[in-house]
Design brief:
Chain lengths: 302, 259
C-alpha cells in the first residue's frame, strides 16, 4: 500500500479571474491526522472540495488510495467519509432515518446504524427529529454519516465550527479514538492552530492559495523553536542597533527596546554577547511570541 | 449488499417521508373535483347539463380540462421545486455528490421519484373524480352517474395521454429546479411559461412548440379534425421529453461545481 493515502500535486484553481489555489501539493500519510490550517478564505475548503470531486479540477493531479481520483471517482468515494462545511442532514427526518438513506447508498449492513450512533453518542436520541438537535448534535450526526461505511479516510472541513468548548473536546476525543483504535486517516481543516495541534500528527498551512508549510507536528515545533523573537531593553539604543545590525533582523519596539528575530536559540546568547562586547548594558531580555499560534501568524504573514 | 439503480431510487424515495409532498399532491389533485362539486351545487345550468348529457363523460371532461390546462402543470412545477429544495434546504447536494454513486444514478433516480409522484397524482385525481360523482349523487341527486357504468377505460386513456403530454414539462422543470439554488427561478420560469402558453394558446395555430400546452392539447384536441395527428403529438411530446431530460443531465454532468 502507498504510504500516502492522498497525494495532491501542483493543484491550481481559479474562480473566474481570481486565483484561489496556487500550485498546492499535499501529501497525507496513511494513518495520520493531517491538520490543514489556514485563515478563512485561504483555500482550504476549495482544496477539500477538489479532493472530493465537488469541483472540477483545472490543473494538477489528485490521487486517492494511489489512483487518479477522476478516473476512479466511485471507488475512491467508497473509501472516504466526508463532512464539508455545514452538516448535510435532512432536518425533517430523525437520526436513524438519515442514516438509513446513507446506509443504502453506501451498501452497508443495518447494524452499522446502531454502531455509529453509539460511536458518536447519539443512540439515545436516534428517534428525535434532526431539526430539534443542537448544532453539536447535528455535527455529531454528520460525523456518524461520514463513518457509516467504515471509510479508511475521513475528510472533515472545520468540524468544530459552532461547537461549545465541551463539544470541541468531545469531537477531539472522538477523532483521536478513531485514529488510534480504528486506524482511520483523518484530514481535518481548521483556522485554529490550537484546536488542531492537540490531535494532528501532520500539518499543512495554506494562505492565500499557497501552501506555506507542510510537515509533521514535530517539524513544526522545530520551526517554532528555530524562530524566536526576543525583546531586549538596553541603555543605548543606537549603539545596540550598530552591534546587532550585521547578524540580526530587528525592529524598534520602544524608546530603549528592540525586538530581534533569532533563527536558532543559540542566537539569543549570541545577541546578548554582541551587546555586551559593544558595551551596551542589557536591562531586560525576554522571549516573546514563541508559541505555535504566533508561529502560525508569522508564517502566514511572512 | 449489491448496489443497484433500484436501491438508488429507494434512497431518494426515503428522503421524502414526513414531507409535505404527499399533502401537496392530495390537495392539488382534489381541487378541481371540489370546485366542480361547488359549481354544480350553485349553477343550475351546469346541473342541467349534467342531467341531460352522458353524465360521466361530461363530468370527466370538465374536470380534466382544468386539470390538464392549469392544475397538473402547476403541480409539476411545485413538485420539482419541492424535490430539489429538499436537498438545497438541508445542504445535502454536496453530500449526495460525495457518495459513491454515478451522476446518472443521482440524476435519474430522483427523476423517477418525480414520475412516481405524478402517477400518484393521477391516481388521486381519478379517485377524487369518482368521490365527487358520489357526492353529487348524494347532495344534488345526479342519478345518471349510477345508471351508467363507470368509464374506467376512458379514464385510463385520458390519464395516459395527459401523462405523456406532461413528460416534457416535468423534465424541463426538473432540470431548472436542480440547476438553480434559488427556488424563485424555476418557479418563476415555470409559471411564466405556463401562463404565457395559455395566453398565446388561443392565437397560435401551431402548438408543437409549447410543451406547457401539451397536456391540454393531448386531452382536448379533436384529433380527427386537426391538421396534425395524435401520433404526431405523441411523438413531439416524447421527443421533447427525451431532449429536455438529456439536456438537463448533460448540463449537470458538465457543471464545474457540484453541490
Amino acid at each position: 500500500m502507498n504510504s500516502y493515502i492522498v497525494q495532491v500535486e501542483n493543484l491550481s484553481h481559479h474562480f473566474g479571474k481570481q486565483l484561489v489555489l496556487d500550485d498546492v501539493s499535499l501529501l497525507i500519510p496513511n494513518g495520520s491526522i493531517y491538520g490543514f490550517l489556514g485563515p478563512n478564505g485561504a483555500g482550504k475548503t476549495t482544496t477539500l472540495r477538489l479532493i472530493l470531486g465537488l469541483l472540477k479540477k483545472q490543473t494538477g493531479v489528485i490521487r486517492v488510495f494511489g489512483d487518479d481520483f477522476e478516473r476512479h471517482r466511485i471507488a475512491a468515494l467508497e473509501g472516504i467519509g466526508s463532512l464539508i462545511e455545514q452538516p448535510s442532514i435532512y432536518l425533517h427526518l430523525n437520526a436513524r432515518e438519515n442514516l438509513e438513506i446513507y446506509r443504502l447508498a453506501y451498501k452497508c449492513g443495518q447494524k452499522r446504524v446502531h454502531e455509529v450512533l453509539e460511536m458518536v453518542g447519539l443512540n439515545d436520541v436516534g428517534n428525535k427529529k434532526s431539526k430539534d438537535y443542537s448544532l453539536g448534535m447535528k455535527q455529531r450526526l454528520a460525523i456518524a454519516i461520514a463513518l457509516l461505511h467504515n471509510p479508511e479516510l475521513l475528510i472533515l472541513d472545520e468540524p468544530a465550527n459552532g461547537l461549545d468548548p465541551n463539544g470541541i473536546i468531545e469531537m477531539r476525543n472522538l477523532l483521536l479514538h478513531l485514529n488510534r483504535e480504528f486506524g482511520k486517516t483523518i484530514l481535518i481543516s481548521s483556522h485554529l492552530l490550537a484546536e488542531v495541534e492537540k490531535i494532528a500528527t501532520d500539518v499543512g498551512i495554506i494562505h492565500k492559495g499557497k501552501l506555506l508549510f507542510q510537515g509533521t507536528l514535530p517539524e513544526l515545533h522545530q520551526l517554532q523553536s528555530d524562530r524566536t523573537i526576543i525583546e531586549i531593553e538596553v541603555d543605548d539604543l543606537e549603539n545596540a542597533k550598530t552591534a546587532l545590525a550585521q547578524l540580526f533582523s530587528f525592529t524598534t519596539a520602544g524608546r530603549n527596546t528592540l525586538q530581534v528575530i533569532c533563527n536558532k536559540k543559540e542566537q539569543v546568547a549570541a545577541a546578548n554577547d554582541l551587546l555586551v562586547k559593544q558595551g551596551v548594558r542589557v536591562y531586560n531580555l525576554k522571549v516573546i511570541q514563541n508559541d505555535l499560534e504566533a508561529l502560525f501568524v508569522q508564517i502566514i504573514t511572512a | 449488499m449489491k448496489y443497484s439503480f433500484l436501491l438508488g431510487i429507494k434512497t431518494e424515495w426515503l428522503k421524502y417521508r414526513h414531507t409535505s409532498l404527499f399533502g401537496l399532491t392530495l390537495l392539488i389533485a382534489s381541487l378541481t373535483p371540489i370546485m366542480k362539486i361547488i359549481s354544480c351545487m350553485v349553477s343550475d345550468e351546469l346541473y342541467g347539463m349534467m342531467m341531460h348529457r352522458d353524465s360521466w363523460h361530461f363530468f370527466l371532461m370538465i374536470n380534466w380540462k382544468d386539470t390538464a390546462a392549469v392544475m397538473l402543470p402547476m403541480y409539476v412545477i411545485l413538485l420539482n421545486n419541492s424535490i430539489a429544495q429538499t436537498e438545497y434546504r438541508n445542504n445535502a447536494w454536496k453530500q449526495l455528490y460525495a457518495l459513491p454513486r454515478s451522476y446518472a444514478d443521482i440524476f435519474f433516480s430522483k427523476f423517477i421519484v418525480v414520475q412516481v409522484m405524478i402517477i400518484f397524482y393521477f391516481l388521486c385525481f381519478n379517485l377524487f373524480c369518482l368521490i365527487a360523482a358520489v357526492l353529487l349523487f348524494l347532495l344534488k341527486g345526479v342519478h345518471n352517474f349510477f345508471q351508467l357504468p363507470i368509464p374506467w377505460y376512458q379514464m385510463l386513456i385520458i390519464s395516459i395521454r395527459v401523462y405523456i403530454g406532461i413528460l416534457a414539462v416535468s423534465a424541463i422543470q426538473y432540470w431548472l429546479s436542480v440547476r438553480f439554488r434559488n427556488f424563485m427561478i424555476p418557479l418563476g420560469i415555470g409559471l411564466s411559461l405556463l401562463i404565457g402558453c395559455l395566453l398565446l394558446g388561443g392565437w397560435v395555430k401551431n402548438h408543437l412548440y409549447s410543451p406547457y400546452l401539451f397536456p391540454l392539447f393531448m386531452f382536448s384536441m379533436d384529433h380527427s379534425n386537426e391538421h396534425y395527428s395524435l401520433g404526431l403529438m405523441y411523438m413531439v411530446s416524447l421527443v421533447s421529453f427525451v431532449l429536455s431530460l438529456l439536456s438537463g443531465f448533460l448540463n449537470l454532468y458538465f457543471r464545474k461545481e457540484k453541490g
